[in-house]
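This part of the workshop introduces the protein records we will be handling. To make this concrete, we reproduce a full record directly below.
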Amino acid sequence: MKRLLNSVLPFILIGIAIVAFAFGIMLLAYLFFFGAIIGFILFIFHWLKQKFFPPKAVSHPEKKAGRIIDSDEWRKL
């Protein structure tokens, strides 16, 4: 009986590993599928928001005239 169990056990373990691998691939496919659906929905919401409510023009602050004091003291360190 022990000899039969020792000869069959590797095949049982390989079968379990193949089933676990196939289940993992199917789970990953479902995650990608639902992720793509959620991403598409978010894209549509963002596109509609940009289409109906365009962003306001950004006013850049004017640069003030001034003096820039540059120093080479950092080179002495």
Residues 1-52 form one domain. The radius of gyration is 32 Å. The mean pLDDT is 87. The CA atoms of residues 20 and 26 lie 10 Å apart.
